C-alpha cells in the first residue's frame, strides 16, 4: 500500500509541476498587463463576424463568431488604433458575441489598456489567463503529502 501511495504522490507532483510552470508564466503576463497604463479611447466600429477560416473549413462548430471592434486612443502624444477586445482572443456563440459587441457601440468612450513599449498591443478588457495556478499548487502539495504518507507506511 505504501508504494502505491508513493506512486500516486509522484504522479500528482508530476501533473502539478506540468501545470504549474505554464500557469506561472501566464500569471506573470497577466500581472504585467494589469499594470499597463490606460487611456481613454473611442470605438469607431463594432460588429459580429463569422471568421472566414471557420466557415471555409466547414468547422465542426459553425456557430462560432468573433467580435470585430475597432477603436482609437491617444497615448504618448500620438493617435493609435486597436482592434483587440481581450487577450486571449476567443470565439463565441452568436448570443454572447452580440452581447460583447453591444457593450462597445460606435462612438462609445472606453478605457484602453496598452503596452507602453508597443502601442499596437492594446486591449479593452484584461482577463485572467492563469486559471490553473492555484490548482497546480494544490496538486503539488497533495502529491508531496500523499508521497510522504506512502513513505511512512512503507517504513512502518
Written account of the structure:
The chain is 46% helix and 28% strand. The protein is of the alpha+beta class and 156 residues long. A five-stranded antiparallel sheet has the order 3-2-1-5-6. The protein has a two-stranded parallel ribbon with strand order 4-7. Helix 1 runs antiparallel to helix 4 (133-155). The longest helix has 33 residues, at 2-34. The protein is elongated. The N and C termini lie close together (11 Å).
Please give the structural blueprint.
Layout (H helix, E strand, L loop, with lengths): L1 H33 L3 E12 L2 H5 L9 E10 L2 E5 L3 E2 L6 H10 L5 E7 L2 E6 L1 E2 L6 H23 L1
Parallel strand pairs: 4-7
Antiparallel strand pairs: 1-2, 1-5, 2-3, 5-6
Helix pairs in contact: 1-4
Key phrases:
156 residues; alpha+beta; 2 domains; five-stranded antiparallel β-sheet; 4 helices; 7 strands; elongated
Task: Describe, in short, the structure shown.
By secondary structure, the chain is of the alpha+beta class.
Amino acid at each position: 500500500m505504501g508504494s502505491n501511495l508513493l506512486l500516486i504522490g509522484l504522479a500528482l507532483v508530476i501533473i502539478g509541476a506540468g501545470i504549474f510552470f505554464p500557469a506561472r508564466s501566464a500569471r506573470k503576463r497577466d500581472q504585467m498587463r494589469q499594470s499597463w497604463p490606460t487611456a481613454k479611447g473611442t470605438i469607431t466600429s463594432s460588429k459580429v463576424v463569422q471568421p472566414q477560416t471557420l466557415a471555409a473549413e466547414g468547422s465542426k462548430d459553425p456557430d462560432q463568431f468573433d467580435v470585430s471592434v475597432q477603436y482609437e486612443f491617444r497615448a504618448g502624444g500620438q493617435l493609435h488604433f486597436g482592434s483587440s477586445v481581450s487577450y486571449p482572443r476567443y470565439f463565441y456563440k452568436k448570443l454572447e458575441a452580440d452581447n460583447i459587441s453591444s457593450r462597445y457601440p460606435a462612438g462609445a468612450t472606453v478605457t484602453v489598456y496598452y503596452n507602453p513599449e508597443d502601442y499596437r498591443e492594446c486591449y479593452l478588457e484584461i482577463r485572467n489567463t492563469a486559471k490553473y495556478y492555484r490548482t497546480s499548487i494544490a496538486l503539488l502539495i497533495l502529491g508531496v503529502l500523499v508521497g510522504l504518507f506512502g513513505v511512512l507506511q512503507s517504513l512502518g
